[in-house]
Amino acid sequence: MEPSREKQGELEVQRLKIEKGRITAEGIYIPNALFSFDDDKKSILSYSDMGIFVLLPGSYAGPSVKGKYLPYISNRKTTRTIIFQSRNAAAQFVLGENGRTDSWQ
Questions:
Q1: Are 65 and 73 within 8 A, CB to CB?
Q2: What's the CA gap between 21 and 70, in Å, rounded?
Q3: pTM: predicted TM-score of the whole model, two decimal places
Q4: CB within 8 A of 27, min separation 6: which ones?
Q5: Over the stretch 40-84, which tens digit does the pLDDT of each residue have?
Q6: CB crowding 27-49: b at 16 or more within 10 Å, else e
């Protein structure tokens, strides 16, 4: 199955998912996008060549997920939208250390 792709002007948006047995996750990947926020006196700037990945609510959260994400997980599913600086980081959130960029289809 081909990922869903949509272009708006020069912005490309891809809707991707992981389906491995009972593990399912879905998100939106925006190639070459840059994400920046300033919170708690910390500034974060993503790498533009990696794009950003928006993990949608209801996606599986792997057993290695802990810490700051726990308030946003119920029964191993995300309850909020979570933004990652890459597809690889989002795949590792879902699949643990076996998650890779090409895990998304």
A1: yes
A2: 23
A3: 0.81
A4: 15, 16, 17, 53, 54, 55, 56, 59, 90, 104
A5: 777 667 776 788 899 999 999 998 898 899 999 999 999 999 998
A6: bbbbeebebeeeeeeeeeebeee
How many angstroms separate the CA atoms of 94 and 24, rounded?
A: 8
Give 17: exposed, middle or buried? Use CB within 10 Å, 0-12, 13-18, 19+: middle
Identify which of 104, 18, 26, 19 has the alpha carbon closest to the alpha carbon of residue 59: 26
Q: How far apart are CA 85 and CA 53, in angstroms?
A: 6
Specify the amino acid at residue 103: S
Tell me the C-alpha distance between 44 and 35, whole Å. Answer: 8
CA dihedral for 92, 95, 98, 104, sign (positive or negative): negative
